[in-house]
Write a structure and sequence with these properties.
Pfam families: CoA_trans. This protein is an alpha/beta fold and 325 residues long. 31% of the residues lie in helices and 20% in strands.
């Protein structure tokens, strides 16, 4: 019942309450879609450090958190923003400089790992990875695993199928569960109780949400519970999983939020240019995040004309005729 009261928070308060130095944290979205960017920028403003970050496939949010020095370790399937940065640039620089430790999995494996956490089981079996080097190449050493109680002893385990040849496979891969201190996702609609609705692809957000000790939901629209009850089959996350609800219009900008706005190609291109040069990136951090009070002020800097250009068409859910070069 504790999660039923007082969930409606300001973003600063939600981040201050649930995201702490050294936290195990996951973020929702996928590459350029529905990244919880307003929360990511607030984490950077509050100077969080040594985060152990988990993501399915992500791009902008991962690169901004890594670039700002917030992340110590990362577990992920893919980090990139398509044509703007096929591999996230600050992420790549940090790996090459030995500034972060990274362990990689397939997208399916990451989804199963979050699902295992949501189910409360220590692992789930799959075939994903059989015959690949993902099983044999570890990002975290055996010695590190012995000293870090929150890391499994092994990255993955391959074992004989306990049912013999049932299912037409002799071997299965066991992937360890992920349980985070806090997960942050951005959704289209939520009510004050925490019921949340995702339109379009949900990626692995629902599994992430249910695997977390604490869940922050940022939303484009804060709607009445009666509206959420009117179409209950469209609600993805139940209230009892949610600790904080934060109303943040354009909370995924500069990534896309299906049905509301597209990603901003001009911003992402400019960001990629900043990331290639260390002094230029420091300028970016100061001008676009650290000297900005909040997400509302950030959007004022971006300007209403730009936000209008990426507004989604109500039929397609994306911005029509957007110059994506």
């Amino acid at each position: 019942m504790e999660k039923e009261a007082g969930k409606l928070l300001e973003l600063k308060e939600a981040v201050a309450r649930f995201v702490f130095d050294g936290a195990h944290i996951s973020i929702g979205g996928f590459t350029l879609n529905r990244n919880p960017m307003a929360a990511v920028y607030e984490i950077i403003r509050q100077g969080r450090r040594d985060l152990h970050l988990y993501a399915h496939s992500n791009g902008q949010a991962v690169d901004e958190l890594v670039g700002a020095g917030c992340v110590r370790r990362l577990e992920i399937a893919y980090g990139g923003t398509g044509r703007f940065a096929p591999t996230c640039i600050r992420f790549r620089k940090a790996v090459q400089a030995g500034m972060i430790q990274v362990e990689d999995y397939s997208n399916y494996q990451m989804t199963l790992r979050f699902m295992a956490g949501a189910m409360g089981v220590p692992f789930l079996p799959c075939r994903s990875g059989l015959g690949s080097d993902l099983i044999h190449h570890w990002g975290f050493s055996e010695d590190l695993r012995k000293t870090e109680s929150r890391l499994p002893d092994e990255k993955m385990v391959v074992m004989d199928n306990p049912f013999g040849s049932w299912g037409e496979t002799a071997k299965v891969v066991l992937v360890p569960a992920i349980t985070t201190d806090v997960t942050i996702i951005h959704v289209q609609k939520a009510d004050a109780l925490g019921n949340a609705r995702i339109a379009g692809l949900s990626f692995a957000d629902v599994e992430q949400a249910k695997s977390a000790e604490h869940l922050i939901v940022t939303c484009e629209e804060l709607v009445s519970t009666d509206e959420m009850k009117a179409d209950p089959d469209r609600n993805c996350i139940p209230f009892f999983c949610v600790d904080a609800v934060v109303h943040v219009p354009h909370g995924a900008y500069p990534t896309a939020c299906y049905g509301y706005y597209d990603y901003d190609p001009a911003y992402l291109k400019q960001f990629a240019d900043y990331t290639r040069d260390d002094p230029a990136y420091e300028t970016y951090l100061q001008d676009y995040i650290l000297r900005i009070d909040d997400h509302e002020s950030f959007l004022e800097k971006i300007g209403s004309e730009t936000l209008g250009d990426i507004e989604a068409d109500p039929e397609t859910g994306y911005a029509n005729n957007l110059d994506r070069r």
